[in-house]
């Protein structure tokens, strides 16, 4: 007797992928990759889900289904995530999720294996089903600069032009070495106009032996303007305003901190800085405080008009920017929801790889390159910056 996987393989092979994919549009309760019964409210039967996750030998038809579902799922991320959350505990148990614990912090409220049905947040499907990688047309590497002097002091640095710390210099060099070991070659590097992002780009290119690669800098890739919070210590703010408020200021999508005004100790330093005289926006119109939404709004024209066309020409791009400008771009490209973006923090000096199809839609979730355990620890450290220090209690 055929196993469920074999049965589904035979059925989908005899029928062809096209017809099974069309079923999705008819909203039939059958598996979208074969004719088997689906798990309640799911798009695939258990056999196909397992095959997709690498539990069983992947079926070419299932793979080709997943390829399309991935790009559609990413475009319709809100809908896909709702499905993900409706996975029942029995279904989850059946998928033997322990074995497939995610290598990253998944924002799904349940165990990450639930994401098997939404093709969005879980790396498993994408990492284990290797043929998917052949869909990648462009590889975009993004980077939060190496540690800056004020990162160590736990102060909001934002538009204050701090240089890299000694560790930050090492992080940038290590990042370059790592990218070299992976064989990356860049054609253009984009940075903000803040020194820490430019210095990081220099060091990365130096380690790669690609110093000749042009660097293009724009204020539109600058870190978020943190308004009146600039220069303040996050842990002290958490003590005075509560950790929740600090998290809202740092990670919410559409809440901007109070604006900076002329009485602020760093107002003159920032707003009379010569570099802002040559932006594509009048100096007076530059922000005095920004939410992540504002960052995305000022970054998008640069992405659409300058960066994306370079990628489409086939150039390999590195973006050496900041925690929040990178988060904004990731949110846009991956269709991350306003609520899920709250749970994403980026460590310093760690390259983030995003593989894109010809329309610049990601074909799988972003991946942090490097030692996953160390990266998770670094992310936690960034998150903890907004908490009260035990000794301050
Ligand atoms: O402005 C800053 O201090 C940090 C971000 O701070 P958080 O959003 O992590 O609090 O930006 P970056 O170091 O990436 O330039």
UniProtKB/TrEMBL annotation:
Its EC number is 5.4.2.11, 5.4.2.4. One of its GO terms (molecular function) is bisphosphoglycerate mutase activity. Substrate binds at residues 144-151, 196, 223-226, 250-251, 323-324. Residues 1-29 are annotated as: Disordered. The record marks 322 as: Transition state stabilizer. One of its GO terms (biological process) is glycolytic process. PROSITE patterns: PG_MUTASE (PS00175). The keyword Isomerase applies. InterPro entries: His_Pase_superF_clade-1 (IPR013078), His_PPase_superfam (IPR029033), PG/BPGM_mutase_AS (IPR001345), Phosphogly_mut1 (IPR005952). The active site is at residues 145, 223. It holds the Pfam family His_Phos_1. It catalyses: (2R)-3-phospho-glyceroyl phosphate = (2R)-2,3-bisphosphoglycerate + H(+); (2R)-2-phosphoglycerate = (2R)-3-phosphoglycerate. Keywords: Glycolysis, Isomerase. It is an enzyme of class 5 (isomerase). It comes from the Eukaryota. Plays a major role in regulating hemoglobin oxygen affinity by controlling the levels of its allosteric effector 2,3-bisphosphoglycerate (2,3-BPG). Also exhibits mutase (EC 5.4.2.11) activity. Belongs to the phosphoglycerate mutase family. BPG-dependent PGAM subfamily. PANTHER family: PHOSPHOGLYCERATE MUTASE. This is Phosphoglycerate mutase. It comes from Pelobates cultripes.
């Amino acid at each position: 007797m055929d196993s469920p996987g074999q049965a589904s393989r035979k059925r989908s092979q005899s029928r062809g992928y096209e017809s099974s994919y069309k079923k999705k549009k008819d909203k039939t309760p059958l598996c979208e990759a074969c004719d088997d019964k689906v798990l309640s409210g799911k798009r695939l039967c258990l056999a196909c889900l397992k095959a997709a996750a690498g539990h069983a030998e992947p079926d070419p038809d299932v793979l080709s289904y997943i390829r399309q579902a991935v790009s559609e799922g990413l475009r319709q991320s809100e809908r896909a995530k709702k499905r993900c959350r409706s996975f029942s505990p029995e279904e989850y148990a059946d998928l033997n999720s322990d074995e497939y614990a995610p290598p990253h912090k998944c924002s799904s409220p349940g165990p990450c294996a639930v994401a098997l049905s939404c093709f969005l947040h879980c790396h498993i499907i994408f990492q284990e089903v290797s043929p998917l990688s052949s869909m990648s047309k462009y590889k975009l590497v993004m980077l939060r600069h190496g540690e800056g002097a004020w990162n160590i002091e736990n102060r909001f640095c934002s538009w204050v032009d701090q240089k890299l710390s000694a560790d930050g210099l090492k992080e940038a060099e290590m990042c370059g070495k790592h990218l070299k070991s992976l064989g990356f070659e860049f054609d253009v590097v984009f940075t903000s106009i803040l020194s820490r992002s430019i210095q990081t780009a220099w060091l990365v290119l130096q380690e790669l032996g690609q110093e000749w690669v042009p660097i293009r800098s724009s204020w539109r890739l600058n870190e978020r303007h943190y308004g009146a919070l600039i220069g303040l210590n996050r842990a002290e703010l958490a003590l005075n305003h509560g950790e929740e408020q600090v998290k809202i200021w740092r990670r919410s999508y559409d809440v901007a901190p109070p604006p900076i005004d002329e009485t602020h100790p760093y107002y003159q330093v920032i707003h009379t800085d010569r570099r802002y005289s040559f932006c594509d926006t009048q100096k007076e119109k530059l922000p005095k405080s920004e939410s992540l939404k504002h960052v995305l709004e000022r970054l998008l024209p640069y992405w659409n008009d300058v960066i994306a066309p370079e990628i489409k020409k086939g150039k390999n791009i590195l973006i050496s920017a900041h925690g929040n400008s990178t988060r904004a771009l990731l949110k846009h490209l991956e269709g991350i929801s306003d609520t899920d973006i709250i749970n994403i923090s980026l460590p310093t000096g760690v390259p983030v790889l995003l593989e894109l199809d010809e329309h610049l839609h990601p074909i799988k979730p972003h991946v942090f390159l490097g030692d996953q355990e160390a990266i998770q620890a670094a992310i936690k450290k960034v998150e903890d910056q907004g908490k009260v220090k035990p000794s301050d209690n």
